[in-house]
Amino acid sequence: MSSGGKRRSLLANAIESIGAVQPPGNDETTASVAPVIEERPIETAAAPSFLERRGAGLDELSKTVKKLTIRIKPSECTIWPGNARDYAQLTHERCASLIDSIREEGTNREPVVIRRTKNGAAPYELIVGTRRHFSISWLNANNHSEIELIARIETLDDEAAFRLADLENREREDVTDLERARNYQHAIQAYYNGGRVQMAERLAIPRQNLHNLLQLAELPEEVISAFAEPGDLKVHHGMRLSPMLKDASRKSGILDAARIISAEQQERRDAGLARIEGPRVFERLVAAAAEDKPKIAPLSRPVVLSQAGGRIAEVLSDSKAKGLTLNINPQEISTVDEILEALRPVIEKAKFSR
To answer: Using the 8-state DSSP alphabet, how is residue 91 labeled?
Structure first.
């Protein structure tokens, strides 16, 4: 079974396994009922750890209500802003293979997930399936107005909708690290009152993974703009750069380098040249942090000079705890009396414990 097929089955099982009752209302008045699309029986997984790892994050979806799939136009639903995928970044090029597939099938084989809206701009709000929504919208605008969106209505609050959308998007390679990081940054405040431990438990992910994503989301816009494509910026970049940016002695160097790189990226775009790749951008930012960090000069020790200006000794330490320690090594020929005369003021001022 393909990875897409497994993901569809996992998502469907996650919703269907908790059971539900038919809610009040009759959707046939707002949309025609489409044939129920049944999932093919899946083979028993050798190690069903995928669902087990996410089981803790789905146990509160017991309020989810399963409905028959319906057919609607993409214009009948708005996009829920809590989804990780940035709808504005979707293009025909990014969705070309899905568009071709839907054109051949005449519809989307895998239903999207929607919920009803109250006093919204449209009757429904899309929770899962932004690429399918975009693809059918594009087809509707390009000589295929007959194609409708197959959707399944679920009753979800925002936090449950976020977890469901996260489960759908977590394994998708076309959701960038930055999109997911920003989605998590919004969610931790919107749904978990800033509680990282609670959020990690609800999503059934390691706390360190959540911390790493939030570090990426916290990067300044100057740094993000230095990368030509959102997908060029990875979680491990945030893990390295975030601590450096918190160091005041390094931050200005990183930001200056980021602005220069961003300008270079724009010049390359304007000239039709290849972009500066993500790994190279990262290397330059790290190098700028190292260059900007001030070098610590070795501590200079007090020296004892003779009346003629020649070096007599060096003060190694002068404290009440350890007393006075001198390194007597005249650089010029000096008599004992000259040495003692030069050392007298130092000894008189020494911080001996009285």
So the answer is: -
Cα 128 to Cα 111: distance, rounded to the nearest angstrom: 9
**Domain check: are 225 and 143 in the same one?**
no
Q: Is 15 helix (H, G, I), strand (E, B) or coil?
A: helix
Q: Nearest 5°: phi and psi at 93?
A: -65, -40
Summarised one tens digit per residue, pLDDT across range 46-94 is: 555 555 555 544 444 444 444 578 999 999 999 998 887 888 888 999 8
Contacts 24+ apart (CB under 8 A), 190-196: 190/82, 190/158, 190/162, 191/158, 191/159, 191/162, 192/159
- Asked if residue 57 and residue 136 are part of one domain, the reply reads yes
Contacts of 45 (CB under 8 A, 6+ apart): none
Chain centre to alpha carbon of residue 176: 8
Domain total of the chain: 3
Give the bridge partners for 77, in sequence order: 124
Residue 211 lies in a domain: no
Do both 68 and 23 map to the same domain?
A: yes
Structural domain harbouring 315: 303-348
| Domain termination site, one of 159, 175, 191 | 175
- Residue 323's DSSP bridge partners are 319
d(CA 228, CA 97) in angstroms, rounded, equals 24
pLDDT digits (tens, 9 = 90+) for 96-138: 999 999 999 999 988 999 999 888 889 999 999 999 999 999 9
The reply to whether the predicted model has a pTM over 0.90 is no
**Phi, psi values for residue 283, rounded to 5°:** -60, -40
